[in-house]
Amino acid sequence: MLSSMPAAVLAAVGVLLLSAMDAAIKHISVSHGLPAILFGRYLFGSAAAALIWNHAGRPAITLEMVRAHALRGVLIVVVAGAFFYGLSVLALAEAITIAFVAPLLIPFFAWAIVGERPRAVSIAAGVVGFAGAIIAMQGAPPETAQSREHTQGVIAVLVSAAAYAWAIALLRTRADRDGAPSVGLLQTAIPCAIVAGPAIALSPMPPLADLPWFALMGALGAGGWYLLILAYARAEAQKLAPIEFTGLIWATAFGFVFFAETPRPPVFAGAALIIGACLFAEWRQRRAPTPPAAPRRR
């Protein structure tokens, strides 16, 4: 079934699952520290990814693959750590909105790493989408917008966005070569190994009542990334990058339903620009022929 789905659909569903994971993380961040959340995310995520890998027939994972994904593992820890902190101090929709810097950067990281020349429509969609994100950021409550904690949260999400764009560009170089099940397992197991020591040393064992939340967080993360890996193996990064903006829709919905976060008008105005940019870019890219890729760097 997944093999017949368009890359854009896979990416959109993947973003939905990861947005749901963000909501689960925001919920448990009230009672658990960052090391415990990171370890729980990747411990249970590794278990879910292992089930996907096993169902796929246990494709071979070589030492060369582990080495190739080591840098992505480090980047993923930076992405998650910085973003999870941002989620703990920012409204869900605001954090997701700021993270939209990443789709703006993906085409340029892909150009530098993979040799995908950015199309004019990809750049235009990114600029318009980013403008929508800036407008949506004005929806932060005035009483919190000027606080030091809010500023730190914004900076953390921006750092996360840059690391995410880099990780996605690296993913493009390996997804079609290594296969989604293997990549999905490596990109959870490697971060799990990185954060295990600090988490065990610094964090107490979560109560049993909270373990289902950690399991849900891991399953949503593994499923969302598996779909994104499939998508990026089938399509250029710049074609899929605008789809990341749909996360704002889900963040707004989850924030309203689960955290009583009522978005202010700028969030909806920004969302309108973002969605319009996504639809326009998708329409133009379907009509345009694929240009030849630049030679890859050795």
What's a concise summary of this model?
This protein is mostly helical and about 300 residues long.
What brief labels describe this structure?
298 residues; mainly alpha; 13 helices; 0% strand; disordered C terminus
Indicate the low-confidence ranges by residue numbers: 290-298
- Global structural class: mainly alpha
Q: Could you tell me the mean pLDDT?
A: 82
Contiguous helical run count: 13
Q: Could you give the count of β-strands?
A: 0
Strand/helix succession:
HHHHHHHHHHHHH
Instruction: State which percent range the strand residues make up.
Output: under 5%
Ends: how far apart? Answer: 36 Å
Helix content: over 70%
Please tell me the total number of domains.
1
Major β-sheet profile: none
Tell the overall outline: globular
Q: Rg, please?
A: 18 Å
Write up what this structure looks like:
The protein has 298 residues and is mainly α. It has one domain. It has helices spanning 7-28, 34-55, 63-89, 92-98, 101-113, 120-137, 142-145, 148-178, 180-202, 211-234, 237-240, 247-259, 265-287. Helix 5 (101-113) packs antiparallel against helix 6 and helix 5 (101-113) packs across helix 8. The model is unreliable at 290-298 (pLDDT under 50).
